[in-house]
Design goal:
The protein is an all-alpha fold. Helices cover 78% and strands 0% of the residues.
Amino acid sequence: MTIPNLITILRFVLVPAVVLAMLQSRWEWAFAGFVVAGLSDGVDGFIARRFNQQSRFGAYLDPIADKLLLVSVFVVMGFIGQLPLWLVVTMVSRDALIVCAVLLSTVIGHPVEIKPFLVSKANTAIQIALAAVVLGELAFAGHLDPLRPTLILLSGVLTVASAAAYLVAWLRHMNGYGEGGKSG
């Protein structure tokens, strides 16, 4: 168990704390927890690279912690009416489709390795910015118009583009599997 892995586990612990704070309208706490989680993500990555503490376990754990926090925050924001439901459904559906594609490929003996595309990294960055803006607006009773609507639109477009990129890559990987052909 490395220090970066322990920091990542802390992010898992922060998820229910941030969600609970949001459900109780304790926006300052929710915002602070989200910021701490974000900073800890950068710190664990720096420590892992700088002190050669990278691990296979951490390579799997880190993105799961990030995604769990982001999806949880988006679902609660959709539930309380701070984000449009179409965006939340699009985001959750994209992530569910990726997980299902990976599981299906693995189950049928043709596993696919998922590597993030540039569009997916941009999507994640915009989603993080959107969550931070909404939590910040709620915590500090401010409005950052037109930032929120712009981030919502960008997030929707990038989520769809990212889903399409993963779908195309997965279909290329699976092309011909089970039909006597080899995939590449």
